[in-house]
Amino acid sequence: MDVVNQLVAQGQFTIIKQPLGFIKALQWIFAIFAFSTCGSYSGMFKMSVECKNRTESDLSIEVQFEYPFRLHQVYFDAPTCKGGKQERLFLVGDYSSSAEFFVTIGVFSFLYSMAALSVYCFILEKYRENNKGPQIDFVVTAVFAFMWLVSSCAWAKGLSDVKTATDPERVITLIPSCEEPENRCREVYDPKVSGLNTSVAFGFINLILWIGNLWFVFKETGWMAAFAGTYVPSQEKQPAPDTFAQGDYAQQDPYAGSQGGYQPDYGQQGGYNEDGGYSQGFEQQQPTSYSNQM
């Protein structure tokens, strides 16, 4: 009991509230529904054979079948309407491969979902270390999504064949005495296959859940950041803006002087003085012959 309390205290059960853990919990639940509704199925149907001689008739021929639907091994006894004799007949078809494949995928999905939830809750940091855990989880999730697609489609086709093979009207055609016009054969009770229809629906629901979970597991792998970083090297090759001031561009500026730029020497050519006239520098540039003439 103390060990259980310690595990519960150390667990990070908030991950179940996040899409990564919540969808995994749904996968665990719906996997149980899928393989249980198929693997635990048992059905039956009834027929009646009314012979010309009523004492030889059998008005309640009951045929039972169940998972894994090896119908060729299911037999029933029907009257021959000839001296009270019975004839043993078998159903047609073996659909165990698609049914067992579907149940197997459901069981393994249940086990993997339970294991993944345990990892999320108790060793999440170890799971995210070096992104190895998410990458393995992504690959396994993709495999299970594909397996659910294949198994659900195969079982849907197998179920259709099972319905056809267990249709009382079709089974009646297997009874030789029903070919005689003086005998009367009819169905009494049809098999109920609503549970099998539900199993197919749960199979495709699991397919949707596993495909949807791929995105949330993919975000944990770190591959998205790697894909986004493929453009970084090309950006680093471009020079930064400050390199124009510090690099060769500044040295090649023909207008840059010793003081950092072009500075025209207006003081040597004169300028305006405080009285609004030109300075002496301008007067010194006047011709000397003009002053001597004055």
From TrEMBL:
Keywords attached to this entry: Glycoprotein, Membrane, Transmembrane, Transmembrane helix
Region (Disordered): 238-294
Membrane topology value: Multi-pass membrane protein
Subcellular location: Membrane
InterPro entries: Marvel, Synaptophysin/porin
Short name of one Pfam family: MARVEL
Compositionally biased residues, Polar residues: 281-294
Primary localization class, coarse: membrane
A GO cellular-component term linked to this record: synaptic vesicle membrane
Transmembrane segments: 25-44, 101-124, 136-157, 200-218
Residue span, MARVEL domain: 15-222
Domain of life where this protein originates: Eukaryota
Protein family according to the UniProt entry: Belongs to the synaptophysin/synaptobrevin family.
Protein name: MARVEL domain-containing protein
Natural source organism: Gouania willdenowi
Gene behind the chain: sypb
